[in-house]
# Entry
Amino acid sequence: MAVVLLVTPRTNEAADWARLLRARIHDLDFRVHPDSGEAGEVEIVLAWKPPHGLLARFPRLRLICSLGMGVDHLLDDPDLPRSVPIVRLVDSNMIEQMSEYALYAVLHFHRRFDVYERFQRERRWQELPLPHTRSRRVGVMGMGATGEDCAHKLAALGFAVFGWSRTPKRVPGITCLHGADGLTVFLAQSDILVICLPLTRATAGILNERTLRALPQGSYVVNMARGGLVIEKDLLASLDSGHIAGAFLDVTEEEPLPADHPLWTHPNVRLTPHIAGLTNPQTAVEPIAENIRRLRAGEPLHDLVDPALGY
Amino acid sequence: MAVVLLVTPRTNEAADWARLLRARIHDLDFRVHPDSGEAGEVEIVLAWKPPHGLLARFPRLRLICSLGMGVDHLLDDPDLPRSVPIVRLVDSNMIEQMSEYALYAVLHFHRRFDVYERFQRERRWQELPLPHTRSRRVGVMGMGATGEDCAHKLAALGFAVFGWSRTPKRVPGITCLHGADGLTVFLAQSDILVICLPLTRATAGILNERTLRALPQGSYVVNMARGGLVIEKDLLASLDSGHIAGAFLDVTEEEPLPADHPLWTHPNVRLTPHIAGLTNPQTAVEPIAENIRRLRAGEPLHDLVDPALGY
# Structure
């Protein structure tokens, strides 16, 4: 028997997960937290934001599958069992969703839809200058599966796309920079910055007063990764000064964003409630079931997390 | 000497046109309306919305170059000299701009950014269901150079793209329908309709009470072509009934849109002031200069308009 425990606040998806996994694992024993049954029987956990300490309670746990693309929601558990492998969710459907979000947000600023929205409210029929797409530099920060897909789709529209990552990458058609030295050069040419980084010890607060200042005057920031990557008070200050002309944010330091937070009403901020990529059991089940099969067959796992790197 | 007359309300672009044409035509005599000089000398006109009757005043006119992609602004002149060839402007830079607009408008509705905008005003952090991109059917109405580029770029994002045109077309990756019979089938599967048609006698008012009703319940309309293609009172009625869930309009029957027009304030309408594609002399000069060269060399013209078809 494969004893699989689902741990998620989205309990309405439990029946879908049960059905989809059962169609792929013939000897499945599927359980839903908090009805985990005998703790010693749980072998595999599928988890999104599990309560701290929960995963340490399963002595025979062999695999933790993240139900989100990031794993910061797992690694921030101080009692996480360090010997159990964790796999990220890499779902091409979610990556496509993230790229849709990035294209929309980049076009929002590139084509001045933020200003035209205001013009409509003012019943103002007025054309604004339109820079060439080829002269608009878009910086994609984080060149993992999501960043690379975004970069390709932005480049296909004609934008001048740059990528930045921790380690060197070669991506056809994209100018890639890396590491601390590359970061300042990268930021200085990002007219529109799209953040696709994982949240780790190394990336927390990577967009702060100093790095925001390194962006061009009048540039734009799109964050569809994690709120903790951006120091919000620094972002608000650069928006207020006009150094940053606009921000399009799907994630915030605290989620849901508190009702009295200034980001809700800032005139140059567009906010969405962490919907850039939504885990869909229909498509996410494939990479998850494949990793469960690999675990049981003793084959190497896909998308294994390096806990030291945090992704 | 090549005597070229520029006729446009955008007189601030005259110096650019002069410089760009001079670099390509060594014996250019460049004039700007209303300073057209001796009428019998004018051979070539570059025109955007010329005053009715003006073009008939040049007895030796040999070529009319449209400064917009459409030519309805020329053909609606009852005194237009019928024997003079007219060429459309087909500028890849403008086509790319149009596709950017189409992608933004389609993603706006597909990803519910219209609703999330309202949620932000209400300080509401709430996720909405997200349909698969592959199950979202986008109908591109008009498969000329612009429609085809839009269709390809939408298909590259994973949308189920359909095309419709007057005559049969074959476009790889796109299901193409045509003619009056194809129209009803096409409309019935357009969850999001993107209008890329020229405005002609055959297409004026093509989106009306009857054809809007043929669209699926809760569908969306994007018009970035010409206002005259859509009967605005019928569109407003279908928006009010909820049959059409939203409209994204770059063009209106009357431009600029009168300040008291209900489209300005309809909650499900996004309006922009005819900016989807802007003629840029820097890039538009290439196809125009090439047609002038062809005219003078006695070679066949590119993008010649058939006045009977109206495009």
